[in-house]
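This is your field. Have a critical look at the following sequence-structure pair:

***
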Amino acid sequence: MLRSYPETSGQWQVSPAGGSLPLWNPAGNQLFFRQVSGQIFVVDVGTLPEVTVSAPRLIKRSASILARAGFDVSPDGKRLLMVREVANTDGRPPALAIVQNWFAEFRKDR
C-alpha cells in the first residue's frame, strides 16, 4: 500500500499479492518490491495531476536470490544489485574473503 505523507489520508494499492522490501528508484517514479516467492516486481508511480500506480510488472524471477537479503537500484536506475546464492561444487562450505584497508592498497599502485 502506498500512502501519502505527511498527510496519511491518501492510499493506493501497489500489489494485489502483497510484497516486501519496497525500494524507490533514484528518480522517484518507480517502486520495486519483492514477493515471498523471491520474484521482484516494479510499478510506475505518477504524482501529477494525481497519484497513479501502474499494474505490477515482473522484472526478476529467481529462486537464487537470498530470501533474507535485500536488493538495491543502481544510481542511474537501470540495474538491480542483489545477493544471490552460488553453488559450491567441491563440497566445501562457501568462503567469505574480507579485505581490510583495500583503499590504501589501491593508492599504492598509483
Summary: The mean pLDDT is 81. The longest strand covers residues 40-46.
